[in-house]
Amino acid sequence: MPLKRYGPDCALLVVDVQNSFCPGGELAVPDGDEVVPLINHLSLLFENVVLTQDWHPRGHISFASSHPGKQPFQNIDLPYGAQTLWPDHCVAGSHGAAFHAELETERARLIVRKGIHAAVDSYSAFVEADRTTPTGLGGYLNTLGVKKVWLAGLATDFCVAWSAIDARAAGFETFVVEDACRAIDIDGSLADAWMTMRQAGVKRVRSDEV
Length: 210
Fold this sequence. Notes:
Rossmann fold, two-stranded antiparallel sheet
Protein backbone atom coordinates (compact mmCIF):
# COMPACT_ATOMS: atom_id res chain seq x y z
CA MET A 1 0.00 0.00 0.00
CA PRO A 2 1.50 3.38 -0.95
CA LEU A 3 2.18 5.80 1.87
CA LYS A 4 -0.43 8.46 2.40
CA ARG A 5 0.85 11.81 1.22
CA TYR A 6 -0.36 15.19 2.38
CA GLY A 7 -0.99 17.74 -0.31
CA PRO A 8 0.57 21.12 -1.05
CA ASP A 9 -1.43 22.82 1.70
CA CYS A 10 0.44 20.83 4.38
CA ALA A 11 4.04 20.86 5.61
CA LEU A 12 6.27 18.92 7.97
CA LEU A 13 8.63 21.12 9.96
CA VAL A 14 11.62 19.17 11.32
CA VAL A 15 13.24 21.15 14.11
CA ASP A 16 16.98 21.09 14.90
CA VAL A 17 17.83 17.39 14.59
CA GLN A 18 21.52 18.24 14.89
CA ASN A 19 24.55 16.61 16.46
CA SER A 20 24.81 19.17 19.27
CA PHE A 21 21.34 18.11 20.48
CA CYS A 22 21.86 14.36 20.13
CA PRO A 23 23.69 12.00 22.55
CA GLY A 24 27.35 13.02 22.75
CA GLY A 25 26.58 16.59 21.72
CA GLU A 26 27.31 19.78 23.62
CA LEU A 27 23.66 20.29 24.54
CA ALA A 28 22.35 16.76 24.24
CA VAL A 29 18.63 16.20 24.61
CA PRO A 30 18.02 12.87 26.39
CA ASP A 31 17.34 10.20 23.74
CA GLY A 32 17.36 12.89 21.08
CA ASP A 33 18.52 10.50 18.38
CA GLU A 34 15.44 8.33 18.87
CA VAL A 35 13.36 10.79 16.84
CA VAL A 36 15.34 10.17 13.65
CA PRO A 37 13.63 6.97 12.37
CA LEU A 38 10.17 8.38 13.06
CA ILE A 39 10.96 11.66 11.32
CA ASN A 40 12.39 9.81 8.32
CA HIS A 41 9.10 7.92 8.04
CA LEU A 42 6.97 11.04 8.53
CA SER A 43 8.86 12.87 5.81
CA LEU A 44 7.61 10.29 3.30
CA LEU A 45 4.06 11.48 3.90
CA PHE A 46 4.56 15.13 3.00
CA GLU A 47 5.07 17.02 -0.23
CA ASN A 48 6.51 19.95 1.73
CA VAL A 49 9.31 19.17 4.20
CA VAL A 50 11.25 21.97 5.90
CA LEU A 51 14.29 21.49 8.13
CA THR A 52 15.48 24.01 10.67
CA GLN A 53 19.09 24.29 11.76
CA ASP A 54 20.57 26.23 14.67
CA TRP A 55 23.53 28.05 13.09
CA HIS A 56 25.27 30.23 15.64
CA PRO A 57 28.32 32.41 15.05
CA ARG A 58 31.17 31.92 17.50
CA GLY A 59 30.69 34.03 20.62
CA HIS A 60 26.90 34.01 20.27
CA ILE A 61 25.06 35.96 22.95
CA SER A 62 23.24 32.82 24.15
CA PHE A 63 26.51 31.06 25.04
CA ALA A 64 27.49 31.11 28.72
CA SER A 65 31.09 31.41 27.56
CA SER A 66 30.25 34.85 26.14
CA HIS A 67 29.41 36.16 29.65
CA PRO A 68 32.35 36.05 32.11
CA GLY A 69 31.41 34.43 35.40
CA LYS A 70 28.23 32.88 34.06
CA GLN A 71 27.48 29.17 33.78
CA PRO A 72 25.30 27.21 31.37
CA PHE A 73 21.59 27.13 32.26
CA GLN A 74 21.76 30.38 34.24
CA ASN A 75 19.38 33.13 33.19
CA ILE A 76 20.24 36.71 32.37
CA ASP A 77 18.34 39.72 31.09
CA LEU A 78 19.20 40.99 27.63
CA PRO A 79 17.73 43.95 25.72
CA TYR A 80 15.11 41.66 24.16
CA GLY A 81 14.19 39.91 27.43
CA ALA A 82 15.18 36.92 29.56
CA GLN A 83 17.79 34.58 28.10
CA THR A 84 18.83 31.12 29.24
CA LEU A 85 22.56 30.66 28.76
CA TRP A 86 23.70 27.51 27.00
CA PRO A 87 26.92 25.61 26.42
CA ASP A 88 28.48 26.54 23.09
CA HIS A 89 26.50 24.52 20.53
CA CYS A 90 25.59 24.41 16.85
CA VAL A 91 28.45 26.72 15.90
CA ALA A 92 28.12 27.44 12.18
CA GLY A 93 30.07 24.98 10.08
CA SER A 94 30.94 22.70 13.01
CA HIS A 95 30.18 19.00 13.47
CA GLY A 96 27.69 19.97 16.18
CA ALA A 97 25.72 22.11 13.74
CA ALA A 98 25.44 19.32 11.17
CA PHE A 99 22.28 17.25 10.93
CA HIS A 100 22.32 13.81 12.55
CA ALA A 101 24.02 11.46 10.11
CA GLU A 102 20.96 9.19 9.80
CA LEU A 103 18.44 12.00 9.23
CA GLU A 104 17.21 11.77 5.66
CA THR A 105 17.41 15.31 4.32
CA GLU A 106 17.03 14.78 0.59
CA ARG A 107 13.25 15.35 0.64
CA ALA A 108 13.58 18.76 2.30
CA ARG A 109 12.49 21.66 0.10
CA LEU A 110 13.97 24.27 2.44
CA ILE A 111 16.52 24.54 5.25
CA VAL A 112 15.95 27.46 7.62
CA ARG A 113 19.04 28.51 9.56
CA LYS A 114 18.25 30.38 12.75
CA GLY A 115 20.22 31.98 15.57
CA ILE A 116 22.49 33.44 12.92
CA HIS A 117 22.65 36.92 14.48
CA ALA A 118 25.32 37.24 17.17
CA ALA A 119 23.26 39.51 19.43
CA VAL A 120 19.89 37.73 19.48
CA ASP A 121 18.86 34.13 20.04
CA SER A 122 16.24 32.30 18.00
CA TYR A 123 14.33 29.32 19.34
CA SER A 124 11.46 29.71 16.93
CA ALA A 125 11.64 28.82 13.26
CA PHE A 126 9.39 31.80 12.53
CA VAL A 127 10.47 34.76 14.70
CA GLU A 128 13.71 35.42 16.55
CA ALA A 129 13.82 35.96 20.31
CA ASP A 130 13.42 39.73 19.98
CA ARG A 131 9.92 38.79 18.74
CA THR A 132 10.21 41.22 15.82
CA THR A 133 12.77 39.75 13.41
CA PRO A 134 11.17 37.20 11.06
CA THR A 135 13.11 34.25 9.66
CA GLY A 136 11.09 34.31 6.44
CA LEU A 137 9.56 30.87 7.00
CA GLY A 138 6.03 32.21 7.40
CA GLY A 139 6.23 34.03 4.08
CA TYR A 140 7.67 30.96 2.36
CA LEU A 141 4.86 28.71 3.59
CA ASN A 142 2.20 31.26 2.72
CA THR A 143 3.59 31.59 -0.79
CA LEU A 144 3.26 27.83 -1.23
CA GLY A 145 -0.33 27.95 0.02
CA VAL A 146 0.40 25.92 3.15
CA LYS A 147 -2.42 25.98 5.71
CA LYS A 148 -1.40 23.20 8.14
CA VAL A 149 1.96 22.34 9.69
CA TRP A 150 3.17 19.34 11.69
CA LEU A 151 6.26 19.72 13.88
CA ALA A 152 8.78 17.14 15.07
CA GLY A 153 12.32 17.32 16.43
CA LEU A 154 14.31 18.86 19.26
CA ALA A 155 13.63 20.02 21.82
CA THR A 156 9.92 19.81 22.64
CA ASP A 157 10.04 22.43 25.38
CA PHE A 158 12.15 24.99 23.54
CA CYS A 159 12.55 25.21 19.76
CA VAL A 160 9.63 22.92 18.92
CA ALA A 161 7.26 24.70 21.31
CA TRP A 162 8.28 28.21 20.29
CA SER A 163 7.97 27.28 16.62
CA ALA A 164 4.54 25.71 17.14
CA ILE A 165 3.22 28.72 19.05
CA ASP A 166 4.49 31.08 16.36
CA ALA A 167 3.02 28.89 13.64
CA ARG A 168 -0.38 29.32 15.26
CA ALA A 169 0.17 33.06 15.60
CA ALA A 170 0.94 33.15 11.88
CA GLY A 171 -2.42 31.51 11.15
CA PHE A 172 -1.40 27.91 10.46
CA GLU A 173 -3.32 24.98 11.88
CA THR A 174 -0.57 23.40 13.95
CA PHE A 175 0.16 19.89 15.22
CA VAL A 176 3.10 18.68 17.33
CA VAL A 177 3.96 15.00 16.87
CA GLU A 178 4.72 14.13 20.47
CA ASP A 179 6.61 10.85 20.03
CA ALA A 180 8.75 12.36 17.26
CA CYS A 181 10.09 14.97 19.71
CA ARG A 182 12.27 14.85 22.82
CA ALA A 183 12.60 17.41 25.62
CA ILE A 184 15.29 18.96 27.81
CA ASP A 185 12.80 19.51 30.67
CA ILE A 186 14.52 22.04 32.92
CA ASP A 187 12.54 22.80 36.10
CA GLY A 188 9.21 21.72 34.65
CA SER A 189 9.77 23.34 31.26
CA LEU A 190 8.14 20.47 29.38
CA ALA A 191 4.82 20.67 31.25
CA ASP A 192 4.86 24.45 30.90
CA ALA A 193 5.51 24.16 27.16
CA TRP A 194 2.61 21.77 26.58
CA MET A 195 0.28 24.03 28.57
CA THR A 196 1.33 27.10 26.59
CA MET A 197 1.00 25.26 23.30
CA ARG A 198 -2.47 24.02 24.22
CA GLN A 199 -3.55 27.54 25.17
CA ALA A 200 -2.30 28.75 21.80
CA GLY A 201 -4.41 26.17 19.98
CA VAL A 202 -1.64 23.75 19.06
CA LYS A 203 -2.85 20.16 18.68
CA ARG A 204 -0.92 17.28 20.25
CA VAL A 205 -0.79 14.08 18.20
CA ARG A 206 1.21 10.88 17.90
CA SER A 207 2.97 9.64 14.78
CA ASP A 208 0.41 6.87 14.20
CA GLU A 209 -2.27 9.57 13.97
CA VAL A 210 -0.48 11.54 11.25
